[in-house]
Specification:
The chain has 197 residues and is α+β, with helices and mostly antiparallel strands. The protein has two helices and eleven strands, in the order ααβββββββββββ. The longest helix has 31 residues, at 2-32.
Length: 197
């Protein structure tokens, strides 16, 4: 009788271990082979920078690539220098289908006009309590800012939040990590947590 009980416990334990291993492997494949990555990549920002939601990009706004490789013709005009004096998002909670707006305020501390501000954004999504990078180093380049020495300008970027991706909801907790570049220097950074319902 005891032998049957022990045998049953060993079999039950073995089955439990197999189920856990299969579950972990399935989770790994789900995250690694694209389902989570596909959901998260759908959250890529639109290719425009704006103070209000815009239907399309303009010729003066671009998003993409490595910000360090972006040219900045201002360097020849004088000392390009600035500091980030304000930042945030327009809300802490968004509905699926909304557009998240992130802003930075830049003060010109140099002796030349700042015409270009680059905003680099990384977005992380919480998946079972673990923050997974959803958007990797998306650069928004905003030209024609015309921030004179001693003045402060505000730059906003818009990030649309899809309702779903591949049939899965985009509801969840997110973190935006934002860096601001003026000239060839990073002048500030911040993180902002938001919830999508």
């Amino acid at each position: 009788m005891i032998r049957k009980i022990i045998s049953g416990l060993v079999i039950a334990t073995g089955i439990a271990i197999v189920v856990v291993v299969i579950g972990i492997f399935a989770l790994y494949l789900w995250i690694d082979n694209g389902t989570a990555t596909k959901i998260i990549h759908e959250l890529q920002p639109t290719p425009y920078v704006t103070t209000l939601p815009a239907p399309s990009a303009t010729s003066e706004d671009t998003a993409g690539g490595d910000s360090a490789a972006s040219s900045n013709n201002e360097a020849e005009a004088g000392n390009i220098s600035g500091e980030m004096v304000g930042h945030g998002t327009d809300s802490d909670t968004y509905n699926r289908g909304d557009t998240a707006k992130c802003y930075v305020e830049v003060k010109n501390t140099g002796d030349a006009t700042i015409n270009r501000v680059i905003v680099d954004v990384d977005v992380y999504k919480s998946v079972w309590g673990v923050m997974i990078k959803a958007i990797d180093n998306q650069s928004y380049v905003k030209d024609d800012q015309n921030i004179a020495p001693g003045e402060t300008g505000r730059v906003e970027i818009a990030i649309p939040i899809p309702d779903e991706y591949d049939g899965m909801s985009t509801t969840g907790d997110y973190r935006f990590d934002v860096s601001v570049i003026v000239g060839d220097r990073k002048i500030g950074s911040f993180s902002e947590k938001v919830k999508v319902t």
